[in-house]
Amino acid sequence: MYQNFLLPIALAVLVTTLPVRAAEPVQADLVLNLWPNLPPDFRPNDQPESDRSSTNDRPVAGESVIRLGNVQTPQLHIYLAAKESATDTAVMVCPGGGYSILAWDLGGTEIASWLQSIGVTAAVVKYRVPTREERKNWLAPVQDIQRGIELLRSGAVSDVTVSHVGVLGFSAGGNASARVATTTHKFYSIEGDQATTAQQPAEPTDSKSFESVHADFAVLVYPAWLVDPSDSAKLVEELVVDQQTPPMFFAHARNDRISCLNSVTMFTELQKRDIPAELHVFSDGGHGFGSRPVGLAHDAWPKLCEHWLRDRGWLNR
Length: 317
Hints:
The chain has seven helices and 15 strands. It has helices at 2-17, 105-117, 139-154, 172-181, 207-213, 261-272, 301-311; strands at 30-33, 50-51, 67-69, 75-79, 89-94, 101-103, 121-126, 164-170, 188-191, 194-197, 218-221, 227-228, 231-235, 248-253, 277-282. β9 and β10 (194-197) form a beta hairpin. The radius of gyration is 20 Å and the shape is globular.
């Protein structure tokens, strides 16, 4: 008798605790391949691009996450701001995923929808993964992001004419975005139709090349691997903050397994050089919260970021 009574309750609890598939991502207004032929150092494999998510994955705000894997054809997915509210700013959106996958909706298309709502054209970067086992696991993603900025600035993207281009990245995407923001040269060259890796010069030698790929600002949300593993008060060697580094906005949780000192230390380096920056470290939230509201303080970061963008003049219509 009691077993029959409890069974429906147990089933109801089970159903309500299973992750729900988030709404299908809104289709982009325009999708274009980033490279004219093959990307730099292209090493194709025989595994197709696919959603690698499963029922065993951790849900976010009770919803599942599209975990896009084996991306071999890097692309820009453009979400145009409505003409009546459009600003002169575009943002390159760089999903997280540990350089293994892309959290495509959580750190990509959902962010694009928010940016559209505040008059910003969003370009979600489908950058190459996996690269986690590469010696420079960040290099291919950074090349893809820089190439996207170059395309936006050159006017090569239909219906996109903007004065400012920023980068916005989560976790590994935040790592790549930070590297783009602190780099003074391009990490690739194109000879004919073939893209190749450029050798890093000791000093910037091509200011025009730098201008074409530089970011006007960076929004870093729980960025990963910015600090020296042996001394979290220092940035990793390749990250150099100087007077050319653009303003930045940070959002991180104190209890994130990817230490909030990644954001704090980068903010400190910016502060030393009087580069405008805004830092928000929330008491709770862990890692990978995206922009899905759960009733915690970190729900506020998109609105805080909107105010920051407006204060800096990047939301002018």
